[in-house]
Here is the input.
Amino acid sequence: MLEKLIVFVEEASMGAALEILLPKMLGEVDFQIIQFQCKDDLLKKLPSRLQGYKSWMPESWSIFVLLDRDDDDCRTLKQHLENESEKAGLLTKTNAAPGQRFQVANRIVIEELEAWYFGDWDAVKHAYPKVSSTIPKKAAYRNPDAIGGGTWEALEKILQKCGYYSTGLRKIECARAVAKNMAPDHNISHSFNIFHNALNDALAWE
Here is the structure.
């Protein structure tokens, strides 16, 4: 069984969201979130961090690496993460056989954390009651992972129109407010579900 989950994140708002989301998804399983200064900082330090864990990590532990895609090519970024894991001698979920224990799962958030919020608009509505419940029906927001012009910018614009965050989106505050209401089993963001499914696979280990 999975005894501990280590999660590498690139910034504070993802860490804030996961502090609330992971207990909902993991139950009693222990977890630790390791936050880096930014995406470049995570990528720079990833090789040495993975090599360090390889030297002592129990087989019942797993590392999840979460990165925003931003403007990067998703496949290229994912392959880079896979290559670094392989160089460290760690088995990734991508390379593991079905049902086999994996030491690292590399997951790309498309495009940014805020795509997960659009994937559970009820959670946004609970946190910010003045927003419209029909946002997910509009063509521009129907696919949370394909929102044009920047996902956090789109969320900020919607919230500001309703009177929230007039001086700019406070991402950490927003992350905590929305994550508190999120239902992991009802999110329509594809990237969130890829992450959630990988967690479920790890939880299924015997």
Summary: The chain has two domains: 4-112+189-203, 114-179.
